[in-house]
Design goal:
With 326 residues, the protein is an alpha/beta fold. It contains twelve helices and 17 strands. It binds S-adenosylmethionine.
Length: 326
């Protein structure tokens, strides 16, 4: 029986036997976390900046939201210098069960705790938050219904007033056949994360698009075993859609964020010292193994900031510093 895409995605990814409760994401696609340890090093640099700005509190939090297998959390903890590591409280948040081999110092939770003081990183989380799809028909916008077993679609009822308002503000549909992914559940998910941040910074890193440049047919995609597959929400593959990060930013501000930066991974990582610069050729003769190592690192950095790949991802960074009540 057909259901809305939001319901179909929810069941396919997080329902009983859902894709993410069964599978670890790194088997199916390569995120920045898995592409290279350089990503965790950059997150550590950001954490140190946030820690300094907060006056080196005890504890200082690192929360890895939508952690997958906990690798980012574990790598940052392993690389933290002693003066930070002994104050650091690391929490990986995911709906899947705790991986057996995760560093025991990393807490594993199904939700972001309230009152985080420090840094929250959500790498490729929001694109997996289920959402509805609307399609413009000659009779106006309609929610798209889908058969979870086959992926076959048909137009359903008109979107409700809140969805229509979201569409009008963030992704207006003009011509018949145009489709929009209604990002309201992502806005709400991000706002609820910002509401749990007492002091510090939250960063969402994801495939993103901005108002005025939305893809007219949407971005809904399936992934299985490293390959693109048709987006059939039967639980056998990941189902993802790019994120309207500008809408999430506005929701974060309504939830209390005081500063917002919306940029690309390329720019954000370059600010954190990831430049992709090749080592000087002279090193090849004075220290050949060092040269080869530095070259390997430069190519990993280049992959993370490649504007046509991971470097083109959106980075939404929002901070808040909530006044404590007396
Ligand atoms: C694409 S994976 C990203 C994994 C990891 N951050 C990385 O970059 O490799 C998305 C993860 O978000 C988790 N997730 C989705 N919605 C969630 C929620 N509401 N609460 C906690 N985890 C969630 C999924 O279980 C999945 O492991």
């Amino acid at each position: 029986m057909e259901v809305t895409w939001r319901e179909a995605m929810r069941r396919a990814l997080y329902g009983e036997r859902g894709f993410y409760l069964r599978e670890r994401p790194d088997r199916h696609f390569r995120t920045s976390v898995h592409a290279s340890p350089v990503f965790a090093e950059a997150v550590l640099r950001l954490l140190r900046q946030v820690d300094t700005a907060l006056g080196r509190p005890r504890p200082v939090d690192l929360v890895d939201m939508g952690s997958g297998n906990g690798l980012l959390a574990a790598r940052v903890l392993a690389a933290a210098p002693p003066d930070l590591a002994e104050r650091l409280r690391v929490t990986a948040v995911d709906l899947s069960p705790r991986p057996g081999d995760l560093d025991p110092r990393v807490a594993w939770e199904p939700q972001v705790p309230y009152g985080v003081s420090g840094l929250v990183v959500a790498n490729e989380w929001l694109d997996n938050v289920p959402l509805d799809i609307a399609e413009m028909t000659p009779g106006g916008p309609r929610l798209v219904l889908v058969d979870p077993a086959t992926g076959e679609e048909r137009p359903g009822p008109a979107p409700g007033p809140e969805d229509l308002a979201w569409l009008e503000r963030w992704w207006p549909l003009r011509s018949a056949g145009e489709r929009a992914e209604i990002g309201r559940p992502r806005d709400e998910a991000w706002a609820s994360l910002i509401a749990r941040l007492a002091h510090g910074t939250a960063v969402a890193v994801d495939y993103a698009h901005l108002a005025g440049r939305r893809p007219p047919l949407g971005t809904l995609t399936g992934y299985r075993d490293g390959s693109l597959v048709p987006a059939v929400p039967d639980g056998s593959c990941d189902i993802t859609a790019h994120v309207a990060l500008d809408a999430c930013a506005a929701a974060g501000e309504r939830a209390g964020a005081e500063t917002t930066t919306l940029t690309t991974q390329r720019e954000a990582l370059r600010e954190l010292g990831v430049t992709g610069a090749r080592p000087p050729l002279a090193l090849a003769s004075t220290d050949p193994p060092g040269y080869v190592r530095a070259l390997g690192r430069a190519s990993q950095e280049a992959e993370l900031i490649d504007p046509a790949g991971l470097g083109g991802f959106g980075w939404l960074s929002q901070s808040r510093h909530r006044e404590e009540r007396p």
